[in-house]
Amino acid sequence: MASVDINGITLTYESSGDPQGPAVLLNMGLALQLISWPREFVDGLVQRGYHVIRYDNRDAGLSSHFDHLGVPNLWLAYMRHLFGWPQQAPYTLNDMAGDALGLLDALGVAAAHIVGVSMGGMVAQIMAARYPGRTLSLTSIMSSSGRPGLPGPSPAARRILLRRTPSAHHRGRVVEQMVDTFRTIGSPGFPMPDDLLRQMAGEAVARNVNGNGVVRQLVAIAASGDRSALLREIACPALVIHGDADPLVPCACGIDTARQIPGARLEVIQGMGHDMPPALVGRLLALLDQHLRGKMAG
């Protein structure tokens, strides 16, 4: 892994595959790190000839943390979001999109296929709309337009979203919380074995824990608001993938995202929740490869 200094911060990234191949920038979701992309998914893209770039978002993994900006009141931010009141956030998704663009600049990548999951899908949407010359295509997975009136998380998923992460000093508790999160929001049609969930959580915790960063990222999402008008400006080929069993970002959010983007292709996967389980990696790769090569069926 390597790092670059951009926009006054440090981003940690990993580049895989042929640098001369088409670039694919992978944007990860809330609180997750670049290692959260399934290895089989990354390797599958590399084997198909793509230059794959993963990175840790600001306030996650080994990229810059923003502890100097304090910790917002999460419940207050949530209530402001529910009532549509203005938010004061340490940073927004627009800033995070600027980070991703700066990474492409630092790596000398003129344009890339932009792929994002959940919060990363929101960042990818902003990139596609605001930096059309740098975006070859957009793939928004298990994400949302942020339009008011869309359904929110299930009660169990909301509980997961709003609870605080234990201190990094209590690694065992952090691992247990992550396993509980994976179980709660995962794909009911493609459940992951318990030992795999614990392995994933253990690797993530061993690499980095930043509970306060999760809060700041959540508030960034809330403060960034409705992207509907922005999505209607997207002109590149767009693919929206969503699971019909997603308890965190309900499928209606993915359907709405596809409706807002002119000409977007929507793929709803039965039994998929808010994760990328091993059993779905092959299907996701096939969809993505067809999309990136401009070969999606009409």
UniProtKB/TrEMBL annotation:
Pfam family, one: Abhydrolase_1
Record keywords: Hydrolase
KW Hydrolase (keyword) present: yes
Gene Ontology molecular function: any one: triacylglycerol lipase activity
Keyword set includes Hydrolase: yes
A GO BP entry: glycerolipid catabolic process
PANTHER family per UniProt: AB HYDROLASE-1 DOMAIN-CONTAINING PROTEIN, HYDROLASE, ALPHA/BETA FOLD FAMILY PROTEIN
Name recorded for this polypeptide: Alpha/beta fold hydrolase
Provenance organism: Pseudoduganella guangdongensis
